[in-house]
Specification:
Elements: E1 9-12, H1 18-29, E2 33-38, H2 42-50, E3 54-58, H3 64-78, E4 83-86, H4 101-129, E5 132-137, H5 150-170, E6 175-180, H6 197-205
Parallel strand pairs: 1-2, 1-4, 2-3, 4-5, 5-6
Helix pairs in contact: 3-4, 4-5
Amino acid sequence: MAGRLEGKVAIITGAAQGQGAHEARAFIAEGAKVMLTDVKDGVLDLARELGEAARGMKHDVSDEDQWNAVVAETLAAFGKVDILVNNAGIFAPGAVTETTKASYVAHFNVNQLGTFLGMKAVIPAMKANGGGSIINICSGAGQRGYPDMISYLSTKWAVRGMTKGTARELASFNIRVNSVHPGIIDTPMIGGTAGDAKLMKGIIASVPLGRIGTT
C-alpha cells in the first residue's frame, strides 16, 4: 500500500548509490521526506533529482560535528526526525595476516563508529518527537563467521550488539532500534570483491539460492 510513510521524515546515510539510493527512492515513493547523506558528490545530484521531498548533504559519518549538522539541517528543512537509516558502510576483504591497521580502523570508523554517532545524534530529536525508528543496516556477516573479511565482520557483529542494547535502552521512549542483515547484494561496494574468485565462491555457497542479491 502506497503512502505508508506519509508525513515521516528520514535520514539515510550512504545514499549516493547502491542500497542507500534505492532506500531513498522507496521512502519517497511511500510519502516520506528524506535527508540523503554521503561522502560522495553524487548524493547532491540524487537529492535534486528526487525533488522537493529530498535534501542532500556531503557527510562523513565518522565525524560527530557533521552528524550534528545533518540533524540540524533536517530539522530546519522538515521540522522533525522520525527515522534514521544507518546505511553507510565500506567493505574490503582480507585475511587476518594480510589486513592492515589502516584498513581495520577505516572499517571501524565508517561501519561501527558511524552507526554509534548516528544513533547518538538523532535520539534527542526523536525523544522530542515522541518516538522514532532507527534502522541499522548490518549484514549476514553480523550473524555468522566468514573467512577473509576480519575488518568488515568485526564491525557488523558490533553493530548487531549495539542495536540490541540500544533497543532496550530506548524502548521506553517509543524509539524502535532494529538491525537488518542482508546477504551479499550486487552494489558498487562489493565491486572490488568480484575479482576474488575464491572469496566470492565461498560467499555465494553460503546463500541457499546460490546467487548474489540485487537491489
